[in-house]
Design brief:
The structure is a homodimer of 307-residue chains. Chain A is an alpha/beta fold and 307 residues long. The first copy, chain A, has 2 domains: 4-86 and 273-293, NAD(P)-binding Rossmann-like Domain (Rossmann fold), CATH 3.40.50; 88-265, 3-Layer(aba) Sandwich (Rossmann fold). Chain A has 11 helices and 12 strands. Chain A has helices spanning 14-22, 64-68, 71-74, 88-103, 106-111, 117-120, 139-150, 180-183, 203-208, 226-234, 273-293; strands at residues 4-9, 25-27, 35-38, 55-58, 79-81, 131-135, 154-159, 170-173, 186-189, 214-217, 240-243, 263-265. In chain A, helix 1 (14-22) runs parallel beside helix 11. In chain A, 47% of the residues are buried. The interface between A and B is large, with 53 and 54 residues.
């Protein structure tokens, strides 16, 4: 079988050319191509596409701009795919870093300027044999599960359907979310921001956690009631919080979260720009291989639902 | 088969009674016991042991005091076992916490009091597809390997013999240690302190690492030349260092490591007291089960070599 002709734009980045070839594609001019890998936003997109192009791989996880600019609407015979899920591993790694830093009491130790061993000893926790609830079983939640399993934690997953998530000890449907707080040691928020998920973590939920519990939010700030969280941290209701996202965002300079020693704020960088190209390259080679083999593509964009 | 009678001293801690029973033993008086679980140092040890006692499980990983007090020498027919290796998981977890905190640039973010996203972005690394050299393939090194594999890192193990270590991409014998520095992204020191391992990491070795490399030491301070490390950190020769052990120890208050933002010092607490009982309990039930089944015991003390 000859390699499948794939166009790449707007530039011919070496890493992506390699990825196309790894997926058993070959770089081609757009007019001779059956697929297009488009590694940026809508500006300069070849619209309308030549009739030979059956598939377009887009760069972002969220492709709203390709709807609002009409590009997807004007090319109804083309299957678009997004990069949704391609960045899950780096976000999951950041999540694990925040959770471990909290459980092993690193913030106070990073701030210390003297040997405070006896004082710190009792605060050193472990994820081993602990329960970690992951709210949201999408790409990030699923990527995190084997990382937590490797350090001996048990995962309680919460998903819309409650269908068993591989690697989780138990999966609850979101309608049973109320049960989670009293049953877990730590909580990871990895669910999308929707009207239904706004402030799903508030004062009542935090009160049911343990004084040693860490809350990690790497999803969106709106899922956590920030004022309630600040109070819980100030009163040591929970052990701490690791937040890659906040509400509001950016977090203003005078916000109490900056000075709380049991809060770690990382400024929305769990998926940093320099990691994206390599993660996107992995996705490109996977989808080129699937396209070449006639298999189901990853992260197909649905023109009706709009994502 | 009736449960095997095991004595427990000096106190009857519930967690250890349970552990004995989980290993299919039953708590017995010392005079009726075939084994003894001794959960503290030499003070008050039942010496000499009644003739029925064939095996003693000691609490510590290092059992020098039981040699120097003559207890092991006066009971030559008794097999002593130590807790060596029982604490490997918690130390490995701490190691992963330090390495991830470094690679994800958490220290600077914990110190920040304002939203510095563009400045921090380029510093966010990943363990995914990175190489981590583990110097020393004992219990801790081996416990760390699956944790690193779960975040997508490749392990280059260094052991005395160079025999392949399970889960490592490659294992080098210690005589080839020189090759490691230029070939790895990060280094974990997990080897015992001996005259041969003193200052195995010095200026020459640090110079061969990358400006993004993290050095983690959870073994003993003497393995790293602290002055050379401080210079390397001050000049950004490497990315940073996570140190649970230092030389000297405790680290004096005026030491430059306390104020370097690319150094994380945790005061020798990777194996905190409150974690030891549960880890010891795991070892007790494993060894009681082995003793009952007539299998090889874990961490047998050799009266000749003295450990």
């Amino acid at each position: 079988m000859p390699p499948i002709p794939i166009a790449l734009g707007p530039t011919q980045e070496r890493q992506l050319v390699d990825a196309i070839e790894r997926g058993s594609g070959v770089l081609a001019d757009i007019d001779a191509a059956r697929g297009l890998v488009w590694a940026t936003g809508p500006d300069g997109f070849p619209d309308p596409l030549p009739p030979g192009v059956e598939w377009v791989q887009l760069y972002a996880a969220g492709v709203e701009e390709f709807f609002t600019t009409g590009i997807i609407g004007r090319n109804p015979k083309v299957q678009f795919t997004s990069a949704a899920g391609a960045f899950a591993n780096t976000v999951a790694e950041h999540t694990l870093a925040l959770l471990l830093a909290g459980v092993r009491y690193l913030p106070e130790q990073i701030l210390a300027t003297t040997w405070r061993q006896p004082e710190f000893f009792p605060h050193i926790g472990t994820l081993r044999n602990s329960t970690v609830a992951i709210i949201g079983a999408g790409g990030i939640g699923r990527a995190l599960i084997p990382m937590l399993a490797a350090v001996g934690a048990h995962v309680l997953a919460v998903s819309r359907s409650g269908r068993p998530v591989p690697g989780a000890v138990e999966t609850l449907p979101v309608i049973r979310l109320d049960e989670v707080w009293a049953r877990t040691d730590h909580v990871v928020i990895a669910a999308p921001a929707t009207p239904a998920t706004k402030h799903i973590v508030g004062a009542d939920e935090l009160a049911q956690l343990k004084p040693t519990s860490w809350l990690i939010n790497i999803a969106r700030g709106s899922l956590v009631d920030t004022d309630a969280l600040v109070k819980a941290l100030q009163n040591n209701i929970i052990g701490g919080a690791g937040l890659d996202v906040t509400e509001p965002e950016p977090l203003p300079d005078d916000h109490p979260l900056w000075s709380l020693p049991n809060a770690i704020v990382t400024p929305h960088l769990s998926n940093p720009p320099q990691r994206r190209v390599e993660a996107f390259a992995e996705r490109v080679s996977a989808n080129v291989a699937r396209f070449a083999a006639g298999n189901e593509l990853l992260s197909k964009v649905d023109p009706v639902s709009g994502y």
